[in-house]
Specification:
Blueprint (H helix, E strand, L loop, with lengths): L5 H46 L11 H5 L10
Length: about 80
């Protein structure tokens, strides 16, 4: 008989049912299904945001450009 015999898997299934119970297994699978649904919903929301063009980033003027006007070269020799 080896690792994959029918008797072995029946014993494994019984041990899992005894440890977790029938209710916990179905509850866990339900939570797993809800997680997959919310994951898919998040992906679809992200794709819809990505398809919209993003607003351009605001430009900030440099303080050196705004604070002083360019000085003219009025130095006479």
């Amino acid at each position: 008989m080896g690792f994959g015999g029918y008797g072995h898997w029946i014993i494994v299934a019984l041990v899992v049912l005894v440890l977790f119970g029938r209710g916990k297994i179905s509850e866990t699978m339900g939570d797993f299904g809800k997680g997959i649904k919310s994951f898919r919903k998040g992906l679809s929301e992200e794709e819809s945001k990505a398809s919209k063009p993003a607003a351009p980033a605001p430009q900030i003027a440099s303080t050196a450009d705004v604070s002083k006007p360019a000085e003219q070269n009025t130095h006479q020799s």
